[in-house]
Amino acid sequence: MKKHIIYSFICFLFLGNIFGQQTPAPKQTTDYSIEGATAHLGNGKIIENSLIMFSNGKISFVGSANSRIARKGKVINAKGKHIYPGFIVANSSLGLAEIDAVRATRDFDEVGSMLPHIRSIIAYNTESKIIETMRPNGVLLAQITPRGGIISGTSSVVQFDAWNWQDAVVKLDEGIHINWPNIFSYGRSSFGGARSLKPNEKYSENITKIKEYFEAAKRYLASDKKTKNLPFEAVKNLFNGTQKIFIHVNGAKNIVDAIDTFKTLNITNIVIVEGKEAEKVANLLKKNNIPVILKRAHRLPGNEDEDYDLPFRNAKILSDAGILVGLGMGGDMERMSSRNLPFYAGTYAAYGLDKEKAVQIITENNAKILGIDDKVGTLEVGKNATIFISEGDALDMSTNNVTDAFIDGRKISLETHQTKLWKRYSNKYKNQ
Hints:
The chain is an alpha/beta fold. It contains 15 helices and 20 strands. The strands form 4 sheets. The protein has an 8-stranded mixed beta sheet with strand order 8-9-10-11-14-15-16-17, with helices on both faces. Strands 3-2-7-18-19-20 form a 6-stranded mixed beta sheet, with no helix packed on it. It has a 4-stranded mixed beta sheet with strand order 5-4-1-6, with no helix packed on it. The termini are far apart.
């Protein structure tokens, strides 16, 4: 018993040391006018020598600094700098885990396989030290997404300056996430060799399970519901189209099968997530008005016969095909990598995507896909003043230096445990 108490105390001290974000900023009481910056509106357009004004958390003016309109409140001279809407990271498990090696800090994957009623927002930790490291790069919002199982659960969209998850929510339970089965599976590897790839013999069976599950949910929803079924209750908004289904799927055939299956079930508000080989079925995606949230660009091609730079060109290929493209995370080290969201967008720009369209995929496009474009995603009058100022191009790692950031008009802290260490050791070496 004594050992148990000591162990619990040590865990408490350890976990207490890894949590503790900056105190959230108070509600905006001072008006702001930012003038002189190049404004990247998030919709593909820019305004040189701009004037952006906001009051009570909302943008009140967007235009030229040459306008004779009276400046309101505190004036920030941003001449030579750049102003952007807050960047939005999709498909992220930020706030659901802190240290992968410490099981007590991981809460992104629940036990079970069909879990549409599991709400990721309940487990979202606003005190995560990882979250505060997003803000100095201009990443101010995220879709908090569960992992694991066949149906992982629901995601919600949050902003990164809040006391608790209730304060953080921008849109609650906006989508349900499903992991589509793969037509191929990996066999055992030979000693020292790569794992062999073979056809998944249970592929059709797994699709049938998914279809039968939703058919059973539909029958339940049409019944008198004498016995309440929470998982089935959770999918009702998929059938009426007010909630989106995010299908995590790779491979051209898999994408086609997923779309056909859910169209048969009369679930049509679909988003494809990751979507390797989506370019091969671009016409189908365009015809059905289905957006794609791409995985980060810095990865290897999926197949041996693909161009080495295909992952870098995917955004341009799909955008040119008329598909709404967003950018998300997923994969190893995704939580730490989320801060690099603008630089992944910059890679797409380096491989053919227009620079302002690259900004658009992490602002307006992600906002549209997540259903929050009425609030954020662009610099427009009436939208939330969730914006930031950078000394240079925010998509360039060498010039993205955020000097000021605002969420709902509240001027937020850009201090993190990492900036504290940087300052500490910078001073150390200055004195040597």
